[in-house]
Amino acid sequence: MQPTISNLARIAVGVGILATAFSFSLPAAAHRAIHRHHHLAYGRPLTVTKRHHEIVTAPDPFHGPAAIVTAPNAVAATIVSLPFRAAAVVFPPYGNPAADPLVLIGAPLHAAGYVAEFPFFVVGSAFGAPPNFY
User: What is the biggest distance separating any 2 CA atoms in the chain, rounded to whole angstroms?
Assistant: First the structure.
């Protein structure tokens, strides 16, 4: 016995209705759980807890004393990477070599760019700067 299109449509509509019902009920259940937790935590007057944690962020490497090293390092890394970025415009580093033979030149140039920028990456990461790789 083969199911007809109308039976499949009924099943699809039923699954859609159930998914919609669950998507509307889950946020409400989460709100009830948060509300219940709030009353349980603050309903006991002798409980001492710290509810709010301070968010600790990393210092900005381009402001303060680290900028003496990271700013010239970023400038030098950009200057060193410019020829490799220009070559990547003409010779794509990724792709199918059978379809585009320029990849055979672009892939080694891309690898050479990573090797040339590696010392700048090491110095910058020691002071917390983001990588300058292209």
Answer: 78
User: CA of 70: how far to CAs of 53, 97, 115, 117, 122, in Å?
Assistant: 31, 38, 19, 14, 11
- Cα three-residue angle 72-73-76, rounded to 5 degrees: 85
CA–CA gap between residue 116 and residue 134 (Å, rounded): 12
Number of Cβ within 10 Å of residue 117's Cβ equals: 21
pLDDT by residue (tens digit) across 1-58? Answer: 556 777 777 887 777 776 666 555 555 555 555 555 555 555 555 555 666 666 666 6
Overall pTM > 0.70:
no
